[in-house]
Amino acid sequence: MATETTNLTDGMHVLADALLLNGIDKMYGVVGIPVTDVARIGQGKGIRFIAMRHEADAGNAAAAEGFLTGKPGVYLTVSAPGYLNGLPPLKEATVNGFPVIMISGSSTRDIVDMGSGDYEGMDQYNYAKPFCKAAYRIDDIKDIGLGVARAIRTACSGRPGGVYLDVPGEMMGMAMDAAEAEATLFKVVDPCPAMVPSQESIDRAVELLASAKHPLVVLGKGAAIAQAENEVQEFFEKTSIPYQPMSMAKGLMPDTSPLSTASCRGLALRSADVVLLMGARLNWMLSFGREKPWNPDAKFIQIDIDPTEIDNARPIAAPIVGDMKSALRLLNAALDKTPVKASDEWLSMLNEAKEKNNAKFAARTSADTVPMDHFNALGRINKVMEKHPDLYLVNEGANTLDDCRNIVNIYKPRHRLDCGTWGVMGVGTGYAIGTAVTTGGQVVSIHGDSAFGFDGMEVETACRFNLPIVFMVFNNGGIYKGDFQNIGTDGDPSPLTLMASAHYEKMIEAFGGVGYYVETPDELEKALEEAIASKKTCLIDVQIDIHAGEESGHIGNLNPVPVVGPLAPKPKEA
Asked: Which domains, from first to last, does the chain contain?
């Protein structure tokens, strides 16, 4: 008697099918037991797999995709140590509001739960929970479609963030009928529904704006993540209210806009009487809205999709709870009925301060001094970037980050990526790779030499995939700068000292990329123009003065000050 043959499939194939059905056609990761074949099968079905050198960089690449598209970027890690490497970018994406899904293989459940000592055994599902919006573990092949759908909806809806999806190796090897497996899969419908704020909250906000003598908008990356640039631009066209751009909000309005207060930030914040937070949160980056340089009597309007973010650090007079696009559309419509315009007196006061500060700044950014410092090196980079407004910029470091934010202009939304809300280093090469893969565009990725040390090996990945990225390493030979001295007796370099004589460009040459070594502003400008024109993977070692830089950049106030010993403040002379 003939037996009927069954067309079988397994968890690895079903997972790839579930991702593709939901439009996820890219994945970043590092393979190994038990997920090697997840990557190979996914690649065979049409998922572009970007194999990277470290799980944290894979997570950051996926986070960049989430920021740029509003859809979850996905990264894959092995169990235990690889999984642990992937947790920091998961947490960072959640803090930043980037939609990301981390998929990790894990060990057999019963052995882990009984503590019997499985290979790389770890309760990954429960460890992940504090690092993300939600964690899910798929124990049965029939639940893969549901698990993927839940991960997508959780990552995208409300305030976006990271989701952990645990796929035990045992489940990945499960088999079932292919037709039955296909029937368990589905495409998520409207994963990020609009959350429309109440009209009452809009009217309250407009009334408060209309009463302001010195209104100010703080423009945050939440508006960039929401892809609300059209609504943002309409608001400023109607009101002419000045705005302070946060770093990843740069480009929602061009940095050259006359309404930007970037070069008179202190005056704007301490003088504003009504402040509209447009996709920004009153966290440490804004001194919680209650410390210097803020006007202590200022009243705040806050647009936020998360109601628990309201009043998180100080009272909010006019909260608008809803998604950014819906809120701004209602706000713009309300402005037609109740027009609000910034006064000429307020704009003139800010413009006068900007003109003075810009003149001082221009002298530093246009200088031809050698060795270079951060200012004149970044000034030349800005000169080149002005000719190429479509370039994406990635930036990390301490002084290299702080000064670049102030000097290099951005003209289009979501064209600048940096460490964001959590303020960490080691994100740059991952963000650059994710940006190049996601957009197909050219990327300039500017790193301090210390920051580059966290993730520099990924230049091999960029070369392997022929990505049009120009990496730039600002080499001043140290963390913050290179002139710190050892205060002990062991003769070793200072804890902050790196190699000022290093030639970072040699790294990329080893992998087939193009390297440049520059010491003058003219050499820097020429090398960057050549690198951009080549559309190849390049690295420019930008040699700057070892004395250039401030300890901790712009946030030295966060360092505790020793009260005794050689680093204690010296007593003032009588």
From this structure: 9-183 (3.40.50.970), 199-351 (3.40.50.1220), 366-552 (3.40.50.970)
